[in-house]
């Protein structure tokens, strides 16, 4: 970024100098035209002064541009800089000969190189600004990494900058900290939130020997980590490199434009030579009046220079990269990480979209769906230990009191459920809260010892394994078959198992709307899931995907195989969020990773939805189509401009109307054509915003979603949270 900003500053200085010189030329012309008598104005309009301005322009702001053009010509790969350089140098050379050898009768036009360089540098400066804007929109990715790390030095802990860490260093990561480097746990036990990299909402327990990634969040334990990949070598550093690739990768249509520009340069040089030959040898016979005040060679050289200048394919060269840069920049401001312009081109042609279920069509965050208590079961003396815990409402209240002291996602789900059920906030007795990462938590609440966690954790609070297994089995028999494979935590109160709390992944609010919108556009929608068929078909029915387009109980290699088969007849986009989807994302024409999949999924994905919203799929599709439409408009404009401009510059209208383009006017038209292309590309922002207003502003979608507002019946039993919404 610093390098790009420095180049932009240098470009700005060159632009300012070139336009200052151009302004001096214009003032001189204007003064001469108005007949001003001031001596200093006559000096500005003098030939010697214009020669100095032109020479200063070529050696100053235009030097780098001309050198690049000439080098490319000698390499056999001419481009737009070649035409600019030839046009500027030929104008200066012809004007210099006219001054040095007056008897030739040629006209001097030293202002032409000055104006030409000024317009070209304006276009280049605008392009550089577009590039740096597109890049700066994405640098926020680095903010996920901490700036400091706690380094272990001779048994003590010292805070050091993260970029000073080396492989083999040992660092301490406290609860709530982000891991500063990729490494391996050497001591401690904790749960880590890796959703930024894997897309999985459930934290992962980390013990000695486990791997941790920089940028992941340590939830509830202290870890000692040996650094394996520091600084830019981390998984987050890989993402930053993806961002840099996105700015340099060319779309196939851009490569075509560059190839055309190269051949076009040879053609223009040939046309320029033909223009000179025609007007030098045949011009005096065809139009004698045009040569009454000057030689045929002078007019021929002026027209041939005009051809070189007006045909400069700046507009052609800017047509694709400017639209792509605006498109990727606009995507970044909308939370879309696009890995290059070629992705926009490919995504605009997609006619089949495959969704993963978990974390994609579902929200990827656990929510409480059912609370089960022993009810009126006869459990002997142990029943006495469950006084005042006979209702699901009471059980949820006690569990939430314990879990309010943790930052575990399951604990947060229990607290959210208790708040939705309007349970009162209860504090645990100070000093009684104990948490074991990966197992559960226990505390004293209302003179009751309440433990929440795995069955093994709750059993350890008392040790009556036979009793616990018996109660757990009875509770399992009470719940519906649909809940058997869902996530569950156990709640123990004093010496008894008080109940079970079930969780499931919530369906995204906008899933139905997204699927409907894609299908209305003629795009086939499929769903892949590792879940059992009944669960997969249930989710598919809610979001509107036909049963025959659902593939369930599929492994990662099965997902890849399905996508590969579909690609035989379709342009396929795969939308996923985690490691299990990586193979399918890589094999699809366009891989789309949800925001939670950054890292594990983004390395193989073409697009990352940083906002983690499914509606961004529609945004990306709309943006890609508008961008490609803008590219085609730019290319048509560039070609049309040259088709019309070159014959006029060659003097086609001179015999008919007496109209001819001077190199300066040709340069101005060339510059205006480039500005037109840039303006049309920048209008992409307005077009995209207008399209979004049309799609969402006037007719807001009505998504089907799972309601998480709990209701409590007179007996204290919680109703199903999803019963009314479906």
Measured as a percent range, the helix fraction is 40-55%
User: Total number of β-strand segments?
Assistant: 22
Distance between the termini: 50 Å
Give the number of domains: 4
Poorly predicted segments: 376-388, 463-471, 698-712, 714-726
Mean pLDDT rating: 75
What is the molecular shape?
A: elongated
How many helix segments?
25
Enumerate the strands of the largest sheet in spatial order, edge to edge or round the barrel. Answer: 10-22-21-20-11-18-19
From the alpha-carbon coordinates, what is the Rg to the nearest angstrom?
Answer: 35 Å
Relative strand content: 15-25%
Major sheet size, sense and barrel closure: 7 strands, mixed
> How does the helix and strand content classify structurally?
alpha+beta
Written description of the protein model:
By secondary structure, the chain is an alpha+beta fold. It has 25 helices and 22 strands. It has a 7-stranded mixed beta sheet, sandwiched between helices. Mean pLDDT is 75; it is low at 376-388, 463-471, 698-712 and 714-726.
Detail the topology: elements first, then pairings.
Layout: H1 2-34, H2 39-44, H3 47-59, H4 63-74, H5 80-100, H6 111-136, E1 148-153, E2 156-161, E3 170-173, E4 182-188, E5 190-193, H7 195-198, E6 204-206, E7 211-212, E8 217-218, E9 223-229, H8 235-248, H9 252-281, H10 283-286, H11 296-310, H12 314-333, E10 336-338, H13 341-347, E11 352-356, H14 357-361, E12 362-372, H15 392-403, H16 409-420, E13 434-436, E14 440-445, E15 448-453, H17 455-460, H18 465-478, E16 487-493, E17 496-507, H19 511-520, E18 524-528, H20 533-543, E19 550-551, H21 556-566, E20 572-576, H22 582-587, E21 590-594, E22 607-609, H23 616-649, H24 654-657, H25 663-697
Parallel strand pairs: 11-18, 11-20, 18-19, 20-21, 21-22
Antiparallel strand pairs: 1-2, 1-3, 3-9, 4-7, 4-9, 5-6, 5-8, 10-22, 12-17, 13-14, 14-15, 15-16, 16-17
Helix pairs in contact: 1-6, 3-5, 3-6, 4-5, 5-6, 5-11, 6-12, 6-25, 9-11, 9-12, 11-23, 11-25, 12-23, 12-25, 13-23, 15-16, 23-25
